[in-house]
Design goal:
The complex is a heterodimer of chains A (130) and B (59). With 130 residues, chain A is of the alpha+beta class. Helices cover 25% and strands 35% of the residues of chain A. Chain B has a two-stranded antiparallel sheet. Chain B has two helices and three strands; from the N terminus they run ββαβα. The chains are: A alpha+beta (130), B alpha+beta (59).
């Protein structure tokens, strides 16, 4: 062991976000400029994500360093349950998994292990590299 | 063997641990990955790095 780093994920790769949506069986709608909220309200956005079984939609909004996910977590809208909370936890985790896999492959590493831990964390091990 | 262990928490918080690298090579190995992922909240070189640097200074 020689180095330990902690990072907070920023969504800055739309392709990785699309792969994450597919992994969770969510649907990414490119250039859908409104996401359904409570009643007839729609949040303006650059893209939107729909979740099977959820009445509300996730707005993908342009942010300073990438993309921001916005949604109404009201329980009846169905998103907070599907996303694991009010911060799109499941989707952000799936995005981070894809982003790490993609960046490590680019550097010549191969993934030797991928498993889910007891607390819901995803553990990945990479070997090789250039 | 050089390995990089990545743990991604349920909210996207990421912990990266490098193993088998010599000296600061582990920092170079993860530099691009960190840049691509987001905001570094803590960065802790372990004893091995300091020892390697001390040996370098002595040489």
């Amino acid at each position: 062991m020689s180095h330990i780093v902690s990072v907070d994920t920023c969504i800055n790769d739309l392709d990785a976000l699309k792969v994450a949506c597919k992994a969770l069986e969510f649907n990414f709608h490119e250039n859908q400029t409104g996401a359904k909220y409570y009643g007839d309200a729609r949040e303006s956005c650059a893209h939107a994500i729909t979740v099977p079984g959820a009445a509300f939609e996730i707005a993908v909004k342009a942010a300073e360093n990438g993309w921001h996910l916005a949604y109404d977590p009201w329980e009846s809208g169905g998103l907070s349950r599907a996303l694991g909370g009010k911060k799109a936890e499941r989707l952000v985790q799936a995005y981070a998994v894809e982003k790490v896999r993609k960046e490590m492959a680019r550097k010549g590493y191969r993934m030797t292990t991928s498993r889910k831990g007891a607390n819901g964390e995803q553990q990945l091990v990479f070997a090789g590299g250039r | 063997m050089r390995t990089i262990n990545v743990t991604i928490g349920p909210g996207g918080e990421i912990e990266i641990e490098t193993k088998g690298f010599k000296g600061r090579a582990c920092i170079d190995a993860t530099k691009d990955l960190l840049k691509a992922l987001g905001k570094v909240t803590s960065d802790t070189p372990t004893r091995e790095i300091h020892e390697a640097e001390r040996q370098k200074e002595r040489a």
